[in-house]
Model the fold of this input.
Amino acid sequence: MADPVATGLVGLQLTITTLTLGFTAQDSWIRFAGLVGMLYISYAQVPYIARVNNPMARGFLANAPFVLVILYIDKLLLNRWTFAARGPTSSVGGLHPAQEAKSKQDARRLVGTGSFLHRLRFGLSITVQARYPGTQWPVKNIPAFSRLRPDYIPNKVEYLRARTIRWITYVLILDLTGLFNNSKNNVILFAPANIPFLSRLAEVSGKEAIMRVILVMSFWFFQYIGIQVVYGFFAILGIASGLSRVETWPLMFGFIGDCYSIRQFWG
Done:
């Protein structure tokens, strides 16, 4: 299980980013204060990671705080997203500015516009996305909802039904893998003496070579499933609550059938 403190600290970072995006001006000192808070939370998270028993959850919670700090810097200090502009206001991060306030007085005045819910929705939508789908600044090659119909966007009910079914399937797969976990075999397989490969190539048996290939593929597979679980959870929560639109939650990964080259696999 995941440690509640570790999970709560990640949630606190998401909250800080959401509120700062939605309720501060582009030049507000609160943004720099928020960065200090994000860094401190990342540091405070470290002792609690060891308490997480599930290896997938431990990997996610160990990396998430530092990834969120990087995204915070990118969105709030480099691209300087604001609710008033409904987009970035600086080109330092590589995005074309949506709107730049003519003066600091204009920036402060614009902060006062918009309802609480609208600001919260904007802050949350930018916080949980790094690809910016459904905006004027999407990254390249975001997967379409349908391979046959690239312009197709499902309605809310269709999306939630399909996404929920996939999410439950992924969770069950992760849960079932615990039945095959043999700690005694792991101690032997991952013993320090077995870590070198090329230096002991003559001693490597066919069984060990096959096991190494399986372990590499398993690591990739379970990382894929784990990312889908986390992404699907936020997608379902955001769309079901009405805080997000369907088009802002496209597929996390492309279609397996398109992975016929190295470029297609990574791109």
In short: Strands lie at 81-82, 87-88.
